DNA sequence: TCGGTATTTGACTAATCAGTCAAATATAGA
DNA sequence: TCTATATTTGACTGATTAGTCAAATACCGA
């Protein structure tokens, strides 16, 4: 029935996500997105009613892409400590890839755009908050397994601890973006995170946690 | 000699700082700053060569304003644990004030603008990185006193620990901005920070750390 | 081959953007 | 009162912004 669908919408989502992540929402124009995606402006507004709508959709699209990776990393079949160390590996590798390709450590796309726009647009604030909550759920699940295995204090408040972990990791990613430097993330984030979680590792084991 | 100086430049610095902090660099226009500061555009460009220059100057201005508070909070005459709890009080009170006045938790102005612009403007990235380093120096100083007093492990790497503390606090401020919610900062940040620092407090003492 | 439908195009608008500049103004010191 | 100097003004530009729209196009299924 009619003209067949194309990948135009997807190209717009991908391009918007990359440009906004590497720069910022305010620094990226609809014209810029269209040019890079090789899409005419008329087509843009055929698929998205506004620039803000595209940004929202690209956030959703990226989170949907991310979930399978999180499901793998936080698979209950893994040792819970490995889940967190794998998470740091996953984050570090992506950041390093972007640093090599674009010359810029880009940090967390959700937090970057959330920090920029949450104060002006409460819908985007709510969306990023929901993503934050969703990620913390993975952490809570792993923390409960750690308690069950006697790896951390059984009186640990997993909701609070998950929020600490999230703040700590995103704080590091933010600083890495600002300093355009992955040194701390590469050499210290894993052992620091283990200390924050409260898991007891030998000095030897801690040393192994540098990427 | 000639027409006497006015507070026009200061009004521009204050206004730019407030508007950028509450919104974002990209969302604030030179016209908007001028209108709020009651300054004509010609005067703006008499004092600042560009919008970016004003933003840089407003960052410097705010940091200069902040230093006396940090000097007080991190006075060597204070108990080092008190320095950190006072720091959290200081941060929380400012955030709560802005939440009441503007309806919005605004987070850290340096990190917010740094996250937005560091990838596009390496000068601003370097400036925020320097401010970050300057703040961590206060933390390092306090950590060394804690070691001397036997409050934390003497083998603590104070440079790394200071970076952890900074990432943790700024991560929390960023999340507070995105969620427009100070709950965690009010009830949990102090004890969480004490745990991260590695200071041993009794359960009773920990409970006292809610603001 | 043709009709219906989704997609694409390019020219368009109106608003806003950062930035310019020559002229007007105010005042301290001579 | 005069002059040097710093400040202020308001109209101006040219570029860029997000967003609009009617017409053209492509193709599936009948």
What are the defining features of this structure?
homodimer, 211 residues, 73% helix, mainly alpha, DNA-binding, Arc Repressor Mutant, subunit A, 2 domains, 11 helices
What is this entry, summarized?
The structure is a homodimer of 211-residue chains. Chain A has 211 residues and is mainly alpha-helical. The first copy, chain A, is 73% helix and 0% strand.
Morphology call of chain A: elongated
User: Uncertain regions of chain A: pLDDT < 50 for 5+ in a row?
Assistant: none
- Overall pLDDT metric of chain A: 95
Please describe the biggest sheet of chain A, giving its number of strands, its sense, and whether it closes into a barrel: none
Number of helices of chain A: 11
Oligomer: homodimer
Q: How do the SSEs of chain A run, as a string of H and E?
A: HHHHHHHHHHH
How many extended strands of chain A? 0
- Helix-and-strand structural type of chain A: mainly alpha
**Largest interchain contact:** A-B, 45 and 45 residues
Helix content range of the residues of chain A, please? over 70%
Strand content of chain A: under 5%
The N- to C-terminal Cα distance of chain A equals: 53 Å
**Count of distinct structural domains of chain A:** 2
Integer-rounded radius of gyration of chain A:
19 Å
Chain-wise SSE layout:
2 copies of one chain form a homodimer.
Chain A: H1 8-22, H2 30-37, H3 41-47, H4 51-73, H5 80-102, H6 109-117, H7 122-148, H8 158-179, H9 183-187, H10 189-197, H11 203-207
The first copy, chain A, binds a DNA duplex (30 and 30 nucleotides) through helix 3.
């Amino acid at each position: 029935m009619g003209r067949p669908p194309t990948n135009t919408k997807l190209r717009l989502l991908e391009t918007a996500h990359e440009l906004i992540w590497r720069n910022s929402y305010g620094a990226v124009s609809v014209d810029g997105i269209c040019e890079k995606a090789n899409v005419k402006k008329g087509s843009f507004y055929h698929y998205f009613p506004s620039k803000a709508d595209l940004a929202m959709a690209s956030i959703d699209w990226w989170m949907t892409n991310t979930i399978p990776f999180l499901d793998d990393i936080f698979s209950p079949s893994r040792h819970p400590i490995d889940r967190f160390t794998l998470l740091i590996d996953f984050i570090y590798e992506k950041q390093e890839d972007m640093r090599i390709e674009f010359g810029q450590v880009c940090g967390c796309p959700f937090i970057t755009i959330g920090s920029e726009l949450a104060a002006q647009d409460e819908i985007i604030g709510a969306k990023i908050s929901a993503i934050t909550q969703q990620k913390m759920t993975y952490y809570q699940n792993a923390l409960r397994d750690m308690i069950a295995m006697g790896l951390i204090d059984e009186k640990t408040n997993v909701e609070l601890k998950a929020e600490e972990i999230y703040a700590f990791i995103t704080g590091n990613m933010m600083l890495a973006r600002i300093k355009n430097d992955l040194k701390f993330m590469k050499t210290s984030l894993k052992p620091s995170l283990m200390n924050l979680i409260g898991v007891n590792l030998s000095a030897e084991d801690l040393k192994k946690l540098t990427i």
